[in-house]
Specification:
Elements: H1 3-9, H2 16-34, E1 41-42, E2 57-58, E3 62-63, H3 66-82, H4 86-109, H5 123-142, H6 145-152
Antiparallel strand pairs: 1-2, 2-3
Helix pairs in contact: 2-3, 2-4, 3-4, 4-5
């Protein structure tokens, strides 16, 4: 934890960026767990380890596999862990958002029926990844912009 992280959280609990990263991390953790629950995940008997052959659908909408669920679990754990500091929370949201935008682009350009679709992704996943990417980037940047302005020595009106 850096000195600025300690100073900015002393006596105030978590900052908004830390709360946001924690909330996003918890949601990803829950999504990862729900992906392994029959009923919440339809076609659960067709849940594959990885690849586009998995016909399991989280909430009947989002195509998932064991790999996809594990990625959500790990991403959730990372968010919860990184929410402990301001810089960790900011980095999680900004870099995580960037990763999701890259994943969105990947999903838009690959053939969903090809081996390149190893996660697997469908159209609903793609657009959710876009929204997650934009939302996480926005949270990471907007919730820390005052901190960045103070470091630059400028004040905002």
């Amino acid at each position: 934890m850096s000195a600025s992280d300690r100073i900015e959280t002393r006596g105030t609990g978590r900052t908004n960026v830390q709360k946001a990263a924690l909330a996003v991390g918890i949601v990803f953790l829950l999504v990862g767990i729900l992906g392994f629950i029959p009923g919440i995940t339809t076609n659960y008997d067709q849940l594959a380890g990885a690849g586009h052959e998995s016909e399991a659908m989280l909430l009947g909408i989002f195509q998932v596999s064991v790999l996809h669920n594990i990625v959500h679990l790990l991403f959730g754990i990372a968010g919860i862990a990184l929410a402990r500091t301001i810089s960790g929370a900011r980095n999680y949201l900004i870099w995580g958002g960037a990763v999701y935008l890259v994943l969105w682009l990947y999903g838009m350009f690959i053939d969903h029926e090809s081996p390149a679709n190893f996660v697997p992704l469908n159209t609903a996943d793609n657009w959710l990844h876009f929204l997650l990417g934009v939302g996480m980037l926005a949270l990471g940047l907007l919730l820390t912009r005052d901190r960045v302005d103070r470091r630059a020595g400028t004040t905002r009106a």
